[in-house]
From TrEMBL:
One of its GO terms (biological process) is regulation of translation. This is SUI1 domain-containing protein. It comes from Ceratopteris richardii. Residues 30-100 form the SUI1 domain. Probably involved in translation. Keywords: Protein biosynthesis, Translation regulation.
């Protein structure tokens, strides 16, 4: 008895985004990361938000809702990135999905 195994490449990138979602890149997701600074201080970054949105308006609403400071920085590889003070990963993910900027499946949390 001979069993043939599927020869699919497990490392092949799968693109399941067949439907158009306004304001979201077709391939990417928003990767919300936390970076350790010095001591107990940390920084939350959110690259990957579509260029259709105003980063400064999103940042202004995030700063008001989360009661923290932040800014928009320009990165060579990632483009514009929103940075916030403190570990705000879950709060940023909730804010982005609640406001309809991205879908819940498109937010990836990283860090610690």
């Amino acid at each position: 008895m001979v069993f043939l195994l599927d020869s699919a490449d497990p490392f092949k990138e799968v693109d399941n985004s067949t439907e158009f979602v306004p304001g979201v890149r077709s391939k990417g997701a928003v990767h919300v990361r936390v970076q350790q600074r010095n001591g107990r201080k940390c920084l939350t970054t959110a690259p990957g938000i579509s260029k259709n949105f105003s980063y400064n308006k999103i940042l202004k609403d995030l700063r008001k809702e989360l009661c923290c400071n932040g800014n928009v920085v320009e990165d060579l590889e990632l483009g514009q990135v929103i940075q916030l003070q403190g570990d705000q990963r879950k709060n940023v993910a909730h804010f982005l999905t609640q406001r309809g900027i991205v879908k819940k499946e498109q937010v990836k949390l990283h860090g610690f």
